[in-house]
Amino acid sequence: MPAVEETLAVVAATTGSGYKWGFETEIDMDLAPAGLSADTVRLISARKGEPEWLLEWRLKALAAWQGMDEPHWARLHHPPIDYQAIHYYAAPRRKPGPASLAEVDPALLRTYEKLGIPLSERAILAGVEASGGERAPMAVDAVFDSVSVATTFRETLARAGVIFCPISEAVREHPELVRRYLGSVVPAGDNYFAALNSAVFTDGSFVFIPRGVRCPMELSTYFRINARNTGQFERTLIIAEAGAEVSYLEGCTAPMRDENQLHAAVVELVALDEARIRYSTVQNWYPGDAEGRGGIYNFVTKRGACRGARSRISWTQVETGSAITWKYPSCILQGEESVGAFYSVALTSNFQQADTGTKMIHIGPRTRSTIVSKGISAGQSNNTYRGLVKILPRAAGARNHTQCDSLLIGDRCGAHTVPYIESRNPSARVEHEATTSKIAEDQLFYCRSRGLSQEDAVSLIVNGFCKEVLKELPMEFAVEAQKLLSVSLEGSVG
Amino acid sequence: MSAALAALPRGFLARYEAGGGRLSGDRAARAAAARALAAGFPGPHDEAWRYTSLRPLAEHAWAEPPVATPDPAALLARFDAIDAPRIVFVNGGWREDLSRPPAHWRRPDRAGARPGTLARPEREPMVALNTLFAEDGALIELPAGVDGGTVLLLHLALGTAEAPFACHPRHRIRLGAGARLALVEASVGEGVYLHNPVTEILLGEHAVLSHARLQDEAAGGFHLATLYGTLARGAHYDGFLLALGARLSRAEAHVTLEGEGGRVHLNGGQLLAGTQHADFTSVVRHAAPACASRQTVKSVLGGMARGVFQGRIEVAREAQKTDGYQRAQALLLSPDAEVDIKPELEIFADDVKCSHGATVGALDAEQIFYLRSRGIPAAEARAMLVRGFLAEALADIAAGPARTMLEQAVELWWRRQQP
What we know:
The complex is a heterodimer. Chain A is α/β, with parallel strands linked by helices. Chain A contains 13 helices and 24 strands. Chain A has one domain (about 5-360, about 430-490). Chain A is globular. Chain B is α/β, with parallel strands linked by helices. Chain B folds into two domains: about 5-260, no CATH class; about 365-420, no CATH class. Chain B contains seven helices and 21 strands. Strand 24 of chain A pairs antiparallel with strand 21 of chain B, so a sheet runs across the interface.
């Protein structure tokens, strides 16, 4: 199907319902009482059968969090969050024993179906529609609220020596790895939201790629916030040993609802000598309705440590959802000649607010980083790029290039760029470029004169504007991302 | 906030309480400033002061300037070549004997005594400090259509390490519709002192002010200057600041384009060595359509010096057709130098063209190689390249007394660096 027709079809599918993925699944929930205290943390830890050291670690994080103030430096405005009104633990009820797909609650499976997650083997083998050519198989670690309920392709991965499992399982099965790396990139007291996450995280993914192994398939986790009033506190830890390679995909949708939901995830990546980690995200959480009511609050700490020489970490993100986005996927470039990259598309419309960017901390010699950020603001939204490039004295010959472009659609939105450049090494070269503009009239005219509607023309131009970032995504993700951009812009062009 | 920063204004406030009664002028404004200061000076968690710490100010007990001042002839001699009317301040006070006032100026009408319409003591702590103590300053008012030619505004500070003092002049420059003025300003000095001027600039419709500033304060001096400007329709403010003196300096500029078609240039150069710290912070606010702002800041940082540039362009909803441009370039000459750059865009209008660029690096090895392969010694090759870099910064200033003064200052600085 030609891209334009497809876009039209998607737009048509969403009109009426507004948010295509706005539905709720009724399923038995096991809730902890609302509120956060040492008791809540103990309850979570006990429910998950965690070892003593992890409980200690959580309690330390809680103490740190209690001594911190909620940060307000970002260009974000929201009503105060009542942290004591949130349920910090929600798990779908499940029968004891190993859960095969057949045993999974059918309502849950239907949810995945509606989401279009190719969870079953059949769906994976059938491949995703509209992707050209052959697809590599993909392993899915599906997270339904807080507890992982099904994991596929475990065996293939196990043969390669790859560990891909819920982090709670990793705590039981591979405690030495978790203990060694958990909190080593994002310490428990790193910032307000990371401390909160460290205290109450319920689940997430754990990935370990042993020395010299190239992960045989793309790894993927679908997040879905479901229960009313449950904050989602995911914890992801990915470790690539020397020479290992992995590509990890994260995608999210969430049901429509009125109350704001808090999400504070932490993602930690560790790359040893010559390891490569590619982390891709398509984030499409409920952004609130056209009047700005509801929507997810997304306060995420994502950080990767290039510990080894010539290691590489790249973050690619397409952010179209959430009412509030507070997210700065960063790279700590410690190993010599290590490489960090950040490719981002952030699209805001209606009353969405995004304050997102990256930090590239150059510590080792000849480290390199690339930042490409594309911000699109429409409606009455505000979109801020906030990024830090820091060159420390030992980072001789370090290089950074930053390109940050903003596109404004309509005259009631805002686009902001706040780069920080701090250099303490004379042989380092740092370049930063930023532009802000609107969609050029001549480009629009050109498209219109060839028979495209105003909306299709804008969609086409926006996709072109984001091309540099979209091409960094794995194929099927890129297709989904393109659709998302078109859908998200719907109604804001006129 | 650290204890030192919280306590810092207390010394000033105590001095104000002790002697404030005899200060003339608007008591209410001074009292409001005192209240603003009571909260303490900003620390590193204050975004506007992220890169510049006022802590070194705490090392001295700042007194009032001495009543009897030594002869500033030696400092003045630097400006002999500039043949223009001059207004001279020594240690914050106007010196009639040294000045040759221009036609459209008035005796420093206790400028500080009248609260300005632009200054915001509640927002800027150094402006609050200025408001607390300001008594003197230059007041230049050009009626509509008048060409004021060139005017030299000099501030000479003569202090000693034993008796550090603080002075807080408050200048106002007002140009009527279509008026023109070339203002050449220089701050030089000896010893240890704090020079904390506040300048308010009001430009009427189509008025043109070119404003060249030289900050070559003493090595032990502190220079914390704040400038506020507002431009009516079609007005043009062309500012350039060369910072090469002072131990700690910050030049803050807040300029608002209030009428259609205004133009602002806020260019600057920083030449720093030793343990110098210089900060150039600016906020250009586009509040009307079809205005343009241009900013190029070049820094050359040697020794353990630290250069800071924070520039923000704000484009209001109604400021369609805005054309904003910012460029920051820094040259790090030594492994211990540091540069911090934060160019910021805040845009609420969609039909705008705004961009910024920043580059940081060392001298280009290829260019050095080119020069050396032609027989030029390494040191000289580096010198040539640094000069070339700086010459570019000065190139936009029209030939005349301002350009000559700045070029001479660079030359002088350069000689000071040679062993």
